[in-house]
Design goal:
The chain folds into two domains: about 80 residues, Alpha-Beta Plaits; about 100 residues, Rossmann fold. It contains eight helices and nine strands. It is elongated. The chain has a five-stranded mixed sheet. The protein has about 210 residues and is of the alpha/beta class. Helix 7 packs across helix 8. Helix 8 links the parallel strand 7 and strand 8.
Amino acid sequence: MVRKIIHIDEEKCNGCGICATACHEGAIDIIDGKAKLVREHFCDGFGDCLPGCPTGAITFEEREAPAYDEEAVLKAKEQKGVKNNKDNSESRINLKNWPVQIKLAPVSAPYFDGANLLIAADCTAYAYSAFHEDFIKGKVTLIGCPKLDAVDYSEKLTEIIRNNDIMSITIVRMEVPCCGGIERAAKTALENSGKFIPWNVVTISIDGKILVL
């Protein structure tokens, strides 16, 4: 049958493995340092693997391929002892990019185009229990801690904002003073980029509440 299925450009693939992790059906393996669609009948054609690819190596195509076999997928999961875990699955879907550390992130990547950018202090995800649902969902995520990294992120963030079509920026920080560094870096980057982009700052208290300032 002719149907929609993913295509992996091995020339672009860097072998990071993000797509294999994102594919809940187990259709992709990493072989000899490259991602490969090894079980076509496991690919449902929904493309959960697409958003996380940092090199843009995965696209859709329509071609002759075996039909998606949900029964075979479930059987394979049972054999591996993989149980359906809705919360964990949704968390993986929410995270659209990798890496997430500001220091490691590229200054240009396909997932940045048209993105709503989340710039968050490391501690916020631990302090605020619904972080995935309330902040990560629908956004490209970058995290960092200027105190521990002892670095000014503004130059890197400036390049990311300048080089990509960012639609909005949300800055999430803790109420503690050291988190002021990530807020300053994001605001400086936005100013230095020369772009006018909607932005807002959300402050989390040390007991996990959103502070209204």
